[in-house]
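Troubleshooting log. The previous structure file for this entry was overwritten by mistake, so regenerating from the original sequence record. Sequence copied from the archived sheet and checked twice against the printout by T.R.
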Amino acid sequence: MTSPRPAAADLRQIPFGIRLAGLTRAPRTAYEAVVRAFRRSLEVRIVAITLLLSAFAMLGTGTYMTYTIGNGLFDARVEQVTEQSARATELAQSTFDTTTAADDSALGLVQLSVIDRIGSIATSYSGIAFLRATDTETNFALPDVVRGNADTYVSDELRQRVSSGQEDQYWQSVSINGDSGDGRPGVVVGSAVDVPGAGAYELYLLYDLSEVQQTLTFVQGTMAFGGMALILLIGAVTWIVVQLVIAPVRIAAETSSKLAAGHLEERIPERGEDVIATLAHSFNEMADSLQHQITELAGLSRVQQRFVSDVSHELRTPLTTIRLAGDVLYDQREKFEPTTARTAELLHTQVERFESLLTDLLEISRYDARAVEIEREPVNLVKLAEDAMGGMESLAERKGTELRLVAPGGHFEAELDARRIRRIVRNLLANAIEHGEGKPIEVIVDSNETAVALAVRDHGVGMSTADASRVFDRFWRADPSRKRTTGGTGLGLAISLEDAALHGGTIDVWSAPGQGSSFRLTLPRRPGVPIASSPLPLPPEDAA
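Regenerated output below.
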């Protein structure tokens, strides 16, 4: 009886999860590296899958072959030993049948002679047992002869089958104990022998099959080594083939990345006449077409920008003259006839709208040409909102709209371009007043550690989801047939979005038909510091 091991007992008391974590902590980095390589590398994935499938195939084939070879070797050896045992039994029986010995001493000498002669027939046996049958009763009996401890491997079941006499011989697999205590495979073959005058006896021959086991072990080792070598060879061949296929794909991916980065002259080398070369040729043709179209579109864009800029500047001079003349007529309108006075008022209004449109077009052309510069200064967004609301009071009064400022925590300065942010707020307020249907409008200002935000909430007609997705498009209006009173150009929100992006911020919109709209401007508090989250929620808290 062995004494308990305290170390094992202590280990069993530790929870399994902790033990598992302790075992897996060390190779965690290597495991993550392998998983990352498997996910990111197509070569590693293909080779790994090929090796895994090859290993399964080798394992199945090797198991089947080992089982088949082992059974074949065992069956052949059993057939050999049973033949030897049959000849040995025949020799013993014929010897006892022809002997003239009549007493126990003489039969004993014949018995020893038979056992010695069996060794010349069953040359590979390692033990022999000549035992008296259990149910034999005669006047005298021969002594049991045992060599090589063969009787210890004869089971009661085997003796019963041999004594039944239904067949000439029986055999049984056994494990032979070696000198070192290890078990070796063996076979015991038993048969009945009738000794005249002494009754029925049983002859058992013990055979050692360790050489069969050695042969099978050698075959298994050879197959295992050959299988491992074959798997490694398959892996190497797969890697080479994959490299031949993946290399052009990698080149195509790198070329695509360079094309996407603006290097339109990059092309894939064309080699050979196979499918990879066809792919490279098609890719290069596509790149040529894209380069041509992009170059043509870039040229058209430059022409368009130049045209808008030139026309806008050229229109400045006649517009200034028209504006001066219109102002003179507008100032003298009370002296004109009613029809002429009304014409002067219309002229004044349309010239103002034309000037606003011209200003917006010039601003858009600057953004398209990437010629916009920002002038930052410390700005209090609450005071800026108050100034913008003051400038829109007259318009709000005409529409019967009340403007409300809600600033729970927005009294913090941020580095902003005051002129551009004021323009954004004025555009948002003008749109809210235009579509608010005379209902109150809230201007909400708040801030957090990384950002400041301003939201303009109206309770007017609102917009559908499709309209809200296009609200920042140039010259787009949700309802073109709707009568406008603010004289908008359709570029205000587009310019506002560009102004916000220039600061590193965003303008988000929420709207629902019948519930109004909410435009939220979020700007970083300091240049270069990313916005963690907006201080104001969207949709607004009062949204249904």
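Confidence is low (pLDDT under 50) at residues 1-27. Archived copy saved in two places this time.
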